[in-house]
Amino acid sequence: MTGPYWAVIALLAAAAFLIRVAGLAAGGRIRASRHAWILDDLPGLIVVSLVASSLAGQPWPTWIAAGIAFGVGAMTNHVILTMAAGVAAFAGLAWLAG
Amino acid sequence: MMDAMKRGALAILPLAFGAAIYGFAFGLLAAQVGFPWWGVGLMSASIHAGSSQIVAVEQFATTGTVLGAVLAGAALNLRYVGMIAALSDVLDGLPLRWKLLAIHMTGDENWALTMAERAKSPEIGAPFLLGSGLVMICVWTGSTAVGALIGAVLPDLERFGLGFAFTAAFIAMARGLWRGRSQIVPWIVAAGITVGVVSLGVPQAYGIVAGALAGLGARAVSRRRAEAVA
């Protein structure tokens, strides 16, 4: 492995860690401020955005499978059951769509 | 402590299986760009950020420049500022070296699972995050290194819906983080902005940051209105 390969790994590792440390420092400050509510709301907003980003631009069977997963998740509040139902729905709809 | 770590390690296994599939695929990509299998493993263990690694390697392959690859990869990781900040309560009281270890082991999957489980059971804390993170970083490192060695023989598991497993898991985690009606508008705003931004061709990681920030803005407005009424 030559120098540029080592440099990509080392610099990206340093950058990734520094970004996490910045989050650690920011968390402590926000929690001690009047904006502490942000830390309560942020997790849900990031997770919702993660879901939305993976659905953006996807065909309708993916959205229907997401709707089924949403229904199972709302009823059961169980990660593995929701995953299983979502994957089964996705695979079934993909098969139906040919 | 060990029991809670074990609980986290076991709870993350289904997601770790999904991550391993992507790990194989990424390992194959990195090997084709010229990284040896041990270099891929080193990269995964030291960076531990899948989307960031994929983009950096793609950029490195197409442009050949180190700085461009690193900047592109690092930019995709900016969402971790908010994610780690939100762990403030979970990590409170830990010695600094454990905090640094925990934030390095934090990825999308074990972070979201920890937050969702903590919303259901407040006793869930740093040991759960560490246990689930340890499994994730080991699986990610191992699968990417193995992918670089034998990735070409892997069948296309995406068509069986394994990629969707993450989406379904995050939907369940969102359910776990649901606290009431005050979240409806901010969540709709976050989802709408994310879909809009990603649909414009912007990378998903930026869409996530934009969506979360827009949702926070909506929540700030609704809080201000509620305070004005009170």
From TrEMBL, chain A:
Pfam families: AzlD (PF05437). Keywords: Membrane, Transmembrane, Transmembrane helix. The chain crosses the membrane at residues 6-26, 38-57, 63-96. It comes from the Bacteria. This is Branched-subunit amino acid transport protein AzlD. It comes from Palleronia aestuarii. The lineage of its organism: Bacteria, Pseudomonadati, Pseudomonadota, Alphaproteobacteria, Rhodobacterales.
TrEMBL record, chain B:
InterPro entries: Brnchd-chn_aa_trnsp_permease. One of its GO terms (cellular component) is plasma membrane. The chain crosses the membrane at residues 54-78, 128-154, 160-178, 185-206. Keywords: Cell membrane, Membrane, Transmembrane, Transmembrane helix, Transport. One of its GO terms (biological process) is L-valine transmembrane transport. Pfam families: AzlC (PF03591). It comes from the Bacteria. It is found in: Cell membrane. This is Putative branched-subunit amino acid permease. Signal peptide: none annotated. Belongs to the AzlC family. Its main location: membrane. It is a multi-pass membrane protein.
